[in-house]
Design a protein that fits this description.
Porin, transmembrane beta strand, three-stranded antiparallel sheet, signal, ion transport, globular, Gram-neg_bact_OMP, Porin_dom_sf, mainly beta
Length: 379
């Protein structure tokens, strides 16, 4: 009897120890609110919305201690609409992320699956739109041309992320085409780095997608993910943030170059000529935030975007001016209410483009204003 009790006690102790070394966590963000669009296809629009500011999503992440500072890790993350319960990202069950791999405290992490690129990992956190998980939809640069708002994720991806070496972190990602005889037909690769120097934060990133508009739907990118349908996309940039006691100011520069461009922003086909020039976007963002109290924060940004595109009608150089301001009040550590206003003006230069704030119905004119109020709950 004593031996049985002793054995049971050791079993319980082992089970508790094993449980302490492993973990599975459920988490997520729910963003529900109302929005006003001054011009949605020629009409004003009041609407109930999901993810007007932060994309609503939930996920499960886990870790198993393998010894020697190494852990087996996984993450399954799903985007959804609060207003109708549907799945986002083309109806995928885990459209945000889905990966598994190994993480070592000294050498970094190697993961495989559907993941974020290096521009999102290392540069986006320095911008207003990419500062918080899930992004800030209304503050994205025109068409989210640089993907700082996570408009697309990368399928078939192998990713390395370093450990933190005295404030320096770096990483790289490769998304396979998964096509026999077409190694570069719908593939993507990226790399980036960041440096945390106390009150100064630096970040930079690069990505290149090849033949993303091809018929290969099993490759790194799918048409339901992409902002652009183009034969090639190069995006690169750098940024810096300066942290003070109650404030934060920053600057971010990005550039996107597109070759063989067919479509911008999904349904807005421009009938572009395939002359090798395609289009380009250069974004210059200044942003700032101030904590008036531990519960109340105001954040703002101004972005100037310089474009160049070639259409059947000739060469055009549109210019965008975009301003976003958000006030955020935390009712608790996990729940906040917000109000955000975004304004965009485009000098279209004969291109036929109208104002188009990210996540909203495009304007029929060169101006658009969107105001959103809502609540976010994190769990």
């Amino acid at each position: 009897m004593k031996k049985t009790l002793i054995a049971a006690a050791f079993t319980a102790i082992y089970a508790c120890g094993a449980h302490a070394q492993n973990s599975v966590t459920l988490y997520g963000v729910i963003d529900a609110g109302l929005s006003y669009n001054s011009n949605a296809g020629g009409h004003s629009l009041w609407a109930a919305g999901s993810g007007n500011v932060t994309g609503s999503h939930w996920g499960v992440t886990g870790s198993e201690d393998l010894g020697g500072g190494t852990h087996a890790v996984f993450r399954l993350e799903s985007g959804f609409s609060v207003t109708n319960g549907s799945m986002r990202q083309g109806g995928r069950l885990f459209g945000y992320q889905a990966y598994a791999g190994l993480d070592n405290a000294r050498y970094g992490a190697l993961t495989l699956g559907r993941q974020y690129d290096s521009v999102v990992d290392y540069l986006a956190p320095l911008s207003f739109t990419g500062r918080h998980p899930g992004g800030n939809n209304l503050a994205a640069h025109p068409y989210d041309n640089d993907n700082l708002n996570n408009s697309f994720r990368v399928n078939n991806a192998v990713k390395y992320a370093s450990a933190n070496y005295g404030g320096v972190k770096f990483g790289a990602l490769y998304g396979f085409s998964n096509e026999a005889g077409g190694f570069d037909d719908n593939r993507l690769y990226s790399f980036g780095a960041s440096y945390d120097f106390g009150s100064l934060l630096f970040g930079a990133g690069y990505l290149q997608a090849n033949n993303g508009g091809s018929a290969n739907t099993n490759g790194a990118l799918t048409l339901t993910d992409r902002t652009f349908v183009a034969s090639q996309q190069r995006t690169y940039g750098a940024g810096v943030n300066y942290l003070m006691r109650h404030a934060r100011v920053g600057f971010v520069w990005t550039r996107t170059q597109l070759g063989g461009l067919d479509t911008i922003n999904g349904a807005n086909s421009l009938g572009l000529t395939q002359n090798g020039q395609g289009a380009s976007f250069s974004n210059y963002e200044v942003n700032a935030s101030y904590d008036f109290t531990p519960q109340f924060t105001v954040t703002g940004e101004y972005t100037f975007t310089q474009g160049a595109l070639s259409t059947e009608g000739g060469e055009h150089h549109p210019r965008w001016h975009e301003v976003s301001v958000q006030a955020d009040y935390f009712l608790s550590k996990r729940t906040d209410v917000y109000a955000q206003a975004s304004y965009q003006h485009i000098g279209a230069d004969g291109s036929g483009l109208g104002a188009d704030i990210s996540g909203q119905s495009p304007s029929s004119t060169d101006q658009q204003t969107v105001v959103a109020i809502g609540m976010r709950h994190r769990f």
